[in-house]
Amino acid sequence: MLSVENVSAGYGKLQVLNDVSIVAREKEVTVIVGPNGSGKSTLLKTISGLTTIYSGVIRLDGVIISRMPAHQVARHGLAYLPQTESVFSHLTVAENLRMAGYTVPKELYSERVSRALSLFPQLTEYMNTKVGNLSGGERQMVAMSMALIRNPKVIMLDEPTANLSPKLATAVLQIVRSLASDLGLAVILVEQNAKKALEIGDRAYLLVGGQKAFEGSAKELLNHRELSRLYLGLKAV
Ligand SMILES: Nc1ncnc2c1ncn2[C@@H]1O[C@H](COP(=O)(O)OP(=O)(O)OP(=O)(O)O)[C@@H](O)[C@H]1O
Ligand SMILES: [Mg+2]
Hints:
By secondary structure, the chain is α/β, with parallel strands linked by helices.
């Protein structure tokens, strides 16, 4: 389990997050939504060890990770797919997977690759294709496979459906759901596409201006007349 406890953080002197607390449990999709600039990506970067933390602590399975550098946090089982693309476009799918697996013991590598590809069977056809030639959805699948090869406990995804067609977005979110339900990971999902994300989510947090404005079940937030209208672009039902 991952817990962010009363964390204030930002970039140098620029404070973005103000006293934020969240919990992400294994087998659950924890959804983080909020307007542009509200600090969603900053929260994921903070958990990954990429910002300045002024106060508060972050724990992963009881271990304090908030004073560790990013590479050490990753070694404790945290995978982070940033909002910008995290694949090597000029390399093939197979080469991307090998890059991701360079710290994985040899005897475990092929098993990890098979497990990742079982979630994305269509990628097997493209093992020798340059990732730059794949569709946006396929590139997202490569990025997720790369994260899974390292066998994380927690996976954080920053807007994995950005630039995807509605149909592909739904497919990607179904896979995100199965990362929690089938593989048992704790998933933290940041999404602009609030409705679709909340539909597959368990717990939800709304960030506004770097502060937590709501926490509860995903369903509760989805059905919250006031908040969904104000911040999620959803019409009151
Ligand atoms: N590297 C950085 N250095 C300085 N300020 C930054 C940096 N990254 C983000 N910010 C600022 O922090 C604030 C929160 O940005 P953040 O990217 O966390 O928002 P967000 O909720 O992810 O927005 P979006 O929905 O547009 O992705 C913004 O005011 C932004 O300008
Ligand atoms: Mg963002």
